[in-house]
Structure formats: C-alpha cells, structure tokens
Amino acid sequence: MEHEHVRDVDPAVADALESEVDRQRSSLQMIASENHASRAVIDAQGSALTNKYAEGYPGSRYYGGCEYADEVEQLAIDRATELFGAEHVNVQPHSGTQANQAVYFAMLEPGDKILSLDLTHGGHLSHGHPANFVGQFYEVEQYEVDPDTGYVDYDGLAEQAAEFEPDIIVSGYSAYPREIEWDRIQNAADDVDALHLADIAHITGLVAAGVHPSPVGVADFVTGSTHKTIRAGRGGIVMCDEEYADDVDSAVFPGGQGGPLMHNVAGKAVGFEEALQPAFETYAEQTVANAKALGESLAENGFSLVSDGTDNHLVLVDLRESHPDTSGGDAEEALEEAGIVLNGNTVPGETRSAFDPSGIRAGTPALTTRGFDEDDCRTVADLITRVVDAPEDDDVVAEVREEVEQLCAANPLYE
Ligand code: DSN
C-alpha cells in the first residue's frame, strides 16, 4: 500500500484542510470551548493508532496486538491521575457528553431524577435538555442562576433539591463565567442523599492548573472534555472514587461505546504531559487574566456582562440593554465577517430563542495559546465593540478585519 498524503489522493479534502488551518491562523477563535492543540497532540491524533481496536482496558483487552495501545492508554491514565488527583480515571469517552452519559448509565435507572442547571442559564444539552436522550430517559428538573447577580442560586438549588429529591445533581456549566462552589452543591446533594456529578468540560485545563478549585474529592463523579481549556485533543474523561470504578468503566465500555478511539487517547496522553509542565499553569493563569481584561474593556465600552464579569476563561454578554436591536446571531455573523469567531448564546432570562439568542459568549483559551496578553484582549474588546455597534457597516467590518489580521500576524499559529 502506498503511503500518500491527503493531497496526493484527495485534493478536495486537502484544500479544505489547508483552508481551515488558514482560517484558524488569520482569524480570532473566541468560541469559549475551542483551543489550538499543539502539533504534538495533532500528530498523536493523526497516528496509526486510528487503525487499532482495543475494546477493554489496559492489560485486559478483547483483541490481540494491544501492547502499544495499552502503553498509550496507561500513560494517559497515569498523567490524568497526576494532574487531577482522582482515585480512578477513565480516558476512553469519545466526548464530554459521552462521559456524562457513562455516569448516568452507571448510576441511574430510566426515570430516575436529575437536577441540573437550565441550558439558557449556562447548562448543557447533556445535563437534561428535552432534545437530548437525558431529557427523555430521566425525569429532569432544572435550577437557575440568581436573576439579580447571574451567580448560581445555591440556596434556591438546595431548596429545590429538598423538594424534588433528585437521584443526582449536576454541576459544571458551559456558559457560566464565575467560580463554582462545589462544596455548596455537594452539601445540597448530601442533604437529600443524591449523587453529585461535576462536569468540568469547559474548565478542565483551569482545574488541572489549579486556577479554578477542583471538584475532585468533593463530587462523586467528575467529567470533562479534553480539547477545551486543556488542549489535549478531542475527547472526554471520567473521574471517580475507586468504589465507582468498575461501574463507570463498564458504563463507558461496553455500556455506551465500542472500541476506544486510541488515536484520541494518544492525543490525551500527550496533552496531559504538556499540561503537567510548569508552562501550562502560566497559560491557564493568562487565559483567565485575558478573559478579565476582555470583560472589563467590554463593560467600559457599554456592554452588560452576565454576573458583571468573569472568574474563568469566558465572558457572557447580554446585548439586550446596550444593543436592543441586535441579536446574538446578528452580532456573531458580523463579527465573523470581521474575523472574530464566537457564538451567539442564550442568556439567563432569555427573551429571544436558542436560534436567535440575546447574547454572545466569548472565550480566551485559543487567543492565549497563540500568545495574546491583556493588552491584546483589550484591543480585541474594542474591535468587538466597533463591529457590534455597527454590524451592518461594511466599512467598519472591513477595517476591523484588517486589524484582526495584524493581530494574527503578530501572534502566529502553526508556523
Ligand atoms: N459545544 C460546547 C460548547 O461550546 O460549550 C459544549 O459541548
């Protein structure tokens, strides 16, 4: 068999792949759940391990030829254990959603009760939205953030738990800018004898670096994704105490998945090794400092931020007061034209819809990876302001596009 490159066999896909790298190089990736994995992680994910079936776990597989798969998976497990301090780690979930699925499948029966944060308040589809299997297989009630502060209403959550008597409470969010008080949610769970699943998908890297408090050792289960703030390539992870290890492992495989994506597990191993280096802590601190600078500048420019700021890697802007005629979708579209890629997002108390929401969510993980500092992020806030103030002005959009390209050139990516 010839070992040709993509370009030799499929110019159409090769062109699209090159264009995607150019797109990432020449525009600002501010979708809060995205990042730029290192070449090393991308190499590992693009490796021949994609060919290998390895159902089972290291040392106990259903197929032969797994010695290197075993080595790679054990390295990923050992490094994750060192990073997070969990008693048990499963690195096989294909995504954060499948990590959550594994916990539900391991611990709940159909019809059992889940208490989780509403999607429009910052939750996630896999926490119980009716369009997701979770909302259909289990009985779900949702808690909310305090409408006045934008912070999780921990007291309200505890009262709701006492009334609803959930089997599991889900914490950890996808559009929540503030530090999460794991203890308070754990106390609410303990009071009603419920389990607690902390989904750190967005903040996996911040937790690994010690920049956000860790729920490991507090919550019964901690799930995460490995390609957001931690830059370890596409995938998910589950962590738990030893008492749940067998149940979780069986729920991942064979419960919810077949063969693990061993090339992705290799990416996780490499990314975790990178995250163990001192430079990663600096990166995570800078990511948060950049988000704070971005948020402060946006606020100075007249935008209203949910919770008035951020403690993590993202800001959530509510456009309703400052730009009542501009939806999050309008802003997203104009900003993308200008080379600033983020997403329209629902906000607490949403009055539009998920398809045409009232806010925008902006994150700094990818900008920080390419070298942006606080001054750069203040500049980015000004660029965002100019576009959102005049989303239909082609001249403004074109001027901002040029300035975005200068910023990108000054902070090169994948050279
Ligand atoms: N799609 C991810 C996000 O943007 O938050 C979560 O799965």
Automatic annotation (TrEMBL):
Going by the UniProt record, its keywords in alphabetical order are: Amino-acid biosynthesis, Cytoplasm, Methyltransferase, One-carbon metabolism, Pyridoxal phosphate, Transferase
Cofactors, names only: pyridoxal 5'-phosphate
| Entry-linked SUPFAM superfamilies | PLP-dependent transferases
**Matches recorded under CDD domains:** SHMT
Compartment(s) where it occurs, according to its Swiss-Prot or TrEMBL record = Cytoplasm
UniProt function note: Catalyzes the reversible interconversion of serine and glycine with tetrahydrofolate (THF) serving as the one-carbon carrier. Also exhibits THF-independent aldolase activity toward beta-hydroxyamino acids, producing glycine and aldehydes, via a retro-aldol mechanism.
Task: Indicate what this protein is called per its UniProt record.
Answer: Serine hydroxymethyltransferase
